[in-house]
Amino acid sequence: MNDDQPTTLCPHDGAPRPRSHRYPQALCNACGDRSTDLAGRPIEMYNVSMSGGFKALHADDGTQCDQVTADGQVLIDGVRYRAGEAYMGGIVVQPKDSPHR
Ligand SMILES: [Zn+2]
């Protein structure tokens, strides 16, 4: 019954994704999954707990990525984006100059 669900395009790769009113510029999950830290090292991002919070781990050895955990700045194909905790849980990646949090 989601045939008329509004969609929008990922600002990075142009893939269709469900439209988010809160995060209209959010990237699609496929792009978010390719995030690296500013040194180019692959990361995985998590909520700290059910009540929220945000942390990033290095995908290769599972150690915490202090840089992304602290400032949320990630690279996808060399373009800098801002990642963080989404309002209702989960992770959202947006253009770094997005006014939305
Ligand atoms: Zn995308």
Highlighted features:
101 residues; mainly beta; 7 strands; binds zinc ion
Any overview of this molecule?
The protein is mostly beta strands and 101 residues long. It has one domain. The protein has two helices and seven strands. The chain has helices at 29-32, 66-71; strands at residues 7-9, 16-18, 43-46, 55-58, 73-76, 79-85, 91-95. A three-stranded antiparallel β-sheet has the order 5-6-7. Strands 1-2 form a two-stranded antiparallel sheet. A two-stranded antiparallel sheet has the order 3-4. 19% of the residues are buried. Bound molecules: zinc ion. Zinc ion is lined by residues 10, 12-13, 15, 27-28, 30-31.
Secondary structure: elements and pairs:
Elements: E1 7-9, E2 16-18, H1 29-32, E3 43-46, E4 55-58, H2 66-71, E5 73-76, E6 79-85, E7 91-95
Antiparallel strand pairs: 1-2, 3-4, 5-6, 6-7
The chain-level mean pLDDT equals 91
Number of helices: 2
Strand content: 25-35%
Work out the helicity level.
Answer: under 10%
Overall tally of domains: 1
Number of strands: 7
**Which parts are unreliable, with pLDDT below 50 for 5 consecutive residues or more?**
none
User: What is the rounded distance between the termini?
Assistant: 29 Å
SSE-based structural type: mainly beta
Spatial strand arrangement across the major sheet? 5-6-7
Which ligands appear in the coordinates?
zinc ion
Instruction: Give the overall form.
Output: globular
Rg estimate, integer Å = 14 Å
Largest sheet: 3 strands, antiparallel
